[in-house]
Design a protein that fits this description.
Blueprint: E1 16-18, E2 23-27, E3 36-43, E4 48-54, E5 59-66, E6 68-73, E7 76-81, E8 85-88, E9 94-99, E10 104-111, H1 117-127, H2 134-137, H3 140-143, E11 146-147, H4 151-154
Antiparallel strand pairs: 1-2, 2-3, 3-10, 4-9, 4-11, 5-8, 5-10, 6-7, 6-9
Length: about 160
Amino acid sequence: MSTNTNPVLVRSTEAEVLAASGVTLLADTPATNGHLTSHRSIFKPGKEGAPPHLHRDASELFYILTGSLRVLTGDDLVILNEGDFLVVPPKTAHAFEAAGTSDAEVLFVLTHAKPRFDYYRLLEGVYRGETDPAELAATSDLYDNHYVESPVWIGR
């Protein structure tokens, strides 16, 4: 880990946008001295954002910028609305998707995270049909993104 103590500033015009998945990459762990990784996502109504998964080491923060998001946390389903804030601790299964009839825009921050931008780039390839989804599962330890089964999510 480097000893960079400079502030991290990402101008909106300079952020990498992954258009097919609706992800804007903001700051990853190499830039934040290992402290956090952050991105913004836009979820279209009726489109799953992420299937049930957990992070063994990272906490994941959700801040709803616009719209509503249906979120699985453990065995609970909750609707988050604009301005709502949620932190999912490590080892807690979670999933999410837009709730309602408008887009949901969400700021995500993962702490104690591994570098994740290459995970989102791989996911972009899946959205574009250029990458086999099985490649995501093969990277679960690399990116601390472990897919799990959830009867609650299936039954939603």
